[in-house]
Amino acid sequence: MKTDSEFSSEGSRSIAAAVREELARRRISRQTLAEKAKISLSTLEKALSGRRPFTVATTIRLEEALGTRLRRPEPADIGAKAAADQAPEHLGSYARAAIAWLVGPYLTLRPSFGDAEAIFAYRTEITWSEAASCLVFHEQDRLDAAFNQQGWVSVPHQSGHIYLVTSRHGQYRLAMIGRPTMTGEMYGILTTLRAGRGTQLTPISTAIALVPMAGGGQEEPALGRIAPHHPSYGGYRAHLARVTDEEFALFKAGN
User: Fold this and answer.
1) How does strand 134-140 pair with strand 150-154?
2) Taking all residues of the chain, what is their mean pLDDT, rounded to a whole number?
3) 223 and 151 part of one domain
4) Where are the beta strands (DSSP E) in 119-244?
5) What is the pLDDT of residues 62-84, one digit of tens each?
6) CA 18, 21, 23, 27: dihedral to nearest 10 degrees?
7) Does residue 22 belong to any structural domain of this protein?
8) In Å, how far are 31, 48, 93, 104, 202 from 12, measured between CA atoms?
9) What InterPro entries would the database entry show (predicted)?
10) What is the SS3 assignment for 137?
11) I need a surface site. Which of 111, 146, 162, 203 has the fewest CB within 10 A?
12) Which is it for the CA torsion 158, 159, 165, 171, positive or negative?
């Protein structure tokens, strides 16, 4: 049972993502961080893996050790005035019941930024946030786990598209995807920053596909960096090819 000193599962996931990002950026081990924060390595490992929620006391110690704030503003701060089952106006004013079909796990595919021939595959979970009164998304099972994204889902009626928006300290990342096909797949464009050498960050846009993940004990799809020789490569490449072949999105080169 959650206590007043513990963060919600959503809040704990946000803090865990922030801690992993700081560990990757500073290139320090979890053991080193635990020692600096004066907490046990076991406590840190369990919180990062989701086996136990982050507590206020543990989070404060981690913030002091890292010299940065880990508790990010939650969607609740933005949607506090929205009706309980309706998203705020700036996210499309959609009703929870009307958008229930979008909830669930998706196999997410995009070209690999580090290998021109490979495909990057990971999981994206879309859920309804009671606190924010809107849909939110969380990326999971990425090879570069420190860069897992999370944010809000905007579904405006006018454009007929779905927007997965991440905003952190004024830095935005956007996936603009079309409504699902008859079999549930969604295709579109991802605009983000590509990490280069040192601290170099370069804007990049690429095709992206979200494919519903089947449940019922069926075999899990292959995740990670999928090379051309992998058995799943052909099917994954076909999904990405649909983005431009069927004009779910277009890429215009400059003159």
Assistant:
1) antiparallel
2) 85
3) yes
4) 119-129, 134-140, 150-154, 161-168, 171-178, 186-195, 201-212, 224-226
5) 988 887 778 765 555 544 444 56
6) -160
7) yes
8) 20, 8, 27, 20, 30
9) Cro/C1-type_HTH, Lambda_DNA-bd_dom_sf
10) strand
11) 203
12) negative
